[in-house]
Structure prediction request, 96 residues.
Amino acid sequence: TAGTKVNMIIEVDVGMQRCGVPPGEAALNLARVIDDHPGVTFRGIMGYEGHIIGEPDNDIRYAECRKSMTMLADTADYIRKNGLPVEIVSGGGTGT
Prediction:
């Protein structure tokens, strides 16, 4: 519909290497492109650490999950420090 703005979040690759943009500068660059588009509102980022779900060792799974979520949080902070609001940071899964 004309005049409607679509809310959008960016998927950040936090280690699964399946989809999403790399953390940091690449995520910021995409957020800027989205922010510059008149029909879209950049709302935030998401990450999925599915690459560690099958890890049987709880300590390893916890440590790897923490690395992934740190990448996501650091990327949110980086985007904010460069002038764009990040309202949504979404991550985590049932197995982690």
Observations:
- The chain has a mean pLDDT of 92.
- The helical segments are 25-36, 58-81.
- The radius of gyration is 15 Å.
- The chain has one domain: 6-91.
